[in-house]
Amino acid sequence: MSSPAPRAAGRKPDQLRPISFEANIAPHATGSVLVSFGLTRVICAATIEANVPTWMKQQKVPGGWLTAEYSMLPYSTLDRKPREISRGKADGRNIEIQRLIGRSLRAVLDLKKLGQNTLWLDCDVLQADGGTRTASITGAYLAARLAIQKLLDAKKIAENPLTDSVAAVSAGIFDGQALLDLDYLEDKDAEVDANIVMTGRGQFVEVQGSGEETTFSGDQLQSLLGLAQTGLKELASLQSAFLARQLLKM
C-alpha cells in the first residue's frame, strides 16, 4: 500500500494552516477582522443597529437579535463567481452558510443582555481556498467581541452578553487519511468532509459531516472529531491572544 501524498507546505495531518487575524479592516463597521486560514481570506464585520426586528416588537420578545450574511466576492475563486443580484436569485449555499454562522454565534450570545440591539455579521470571502465557512465563524466571533466592547465602553449595555468564544474548523478523509483543516485541493477530492463548530470551553455547537459518494465508519468519525477538537483548542487560544492585544488598545 502506497503512503499518503504529502500535504501542501509539508503540513502534518493534525496541523492547521497558518492562521492570522487583522483588526479594523472595515473602519465603518462597529468591529471588523480579516481572518486568514492559509490562502482563504474573509472579511468579518460586525455592525450594531439600535433596533430589533419587527417580529420581536410584535411578539414583545425581550432583548436583541443577531443575524449573519455571507457572500463570496466575484474574484474570490479561480473562475469569476457571478453576484447573486446578477443571477436574480439567492445562492442556496450562501443561505446555508449564513444560517450556520448565525446559529454558531447565537449559541454563545445571551440575547437578553444585548439589549434592544441587532448585531449584524457580514462575512465576505476575498479569497477562497477551502474552509470559508469555518474561517467566517472563527472571524465573526472576533468581530462581534470587538463590536460589543464598544457598546460596553459607551455604557449602552451593562455586561458582556457573550458567554463563551466560538470557532470552527474542517476535517476530512483524503487519500484514506484523516486530515485537519482541508484546503481546496484536499476538500474537492475528499472521501469524507466534515465541519465542526465548538465553543472555547469545548462544547460542540454543530457537527456537519458527509461522505462524498462513499460511507464512513464510527471509528473514522471519531478520528475526525478528535482532529477537530485539537485544532479548535488551538484556534480558541489564538482568538484569546488576539483579543487580549486588541482590547488593550480600545
Describe this structure in a few short sentences.
This protein is α+β, with helices and mostly antiparallel strands and 250 residues long.
Descriptive terms for the model:
single chain, 250 residues, alpha+beta, Ribosomal Protein S5, domain 2, five-stranded mixed β-sheet, four-stranded antiparallel β-sheet, 6 helices, 9 strands, 33% helix, 28% strand
The general outline is globular
List the strand order in the largest sheet.
1-2-3-5-4
Beta content comes to 25-35%
- Helix percentage: 25-40%
Low-confidence blocks of residues: none
Gyration radius from CA atoms, angstroms: 18 Å
Secondary structural class:
alpha+beta
CATH second-level architecture:
2-Layer Sandwich
Mean model confidence by pLDDT: 93
- The H-and-E topology, N to C, reads as EEEHEHHEHEEHEEH
Instruction: Classify the fold: give the CATH topology.
Output: Ribosomal Protein S5, domain 2
Our measurement of the CA-to-CA distance between the termini, rounded to an integer number of angstroms, reads: 56 Å
Number of domains: 1
CATH homologous superfamily assignment:
GHMP Kinase, N-terminal domain
Description:
This protein has helices at 54-58, 84-87, 92-106, 132-153, 184-188, 218-249, and strands at residues 19-23, 31-37, 40-49, 65-72, 118-127, 166-174, 177-180, 192-199, 204-211. By secondary structure, the protein is an alpha+beta fold. The protein has one domain (12-249): 2-Layer Sandwich (Ribosomal Protein S5, domain 2). The strands form two sheets. Strands 1-2-3-5-4 form a five-stranded mixed sheet. Strands 7-6-8-9 form a four-stranded antiparallel sheet, sandwiched between helices. A hairpin with a 4-residue loop joins strand 8 (192-199) and strand 9. Helix 3 crosses helix 4 and helix 4 (132-153) runs parallel beside helix 6. The model has no long low-confidence stretch (mean pLDDT 93).
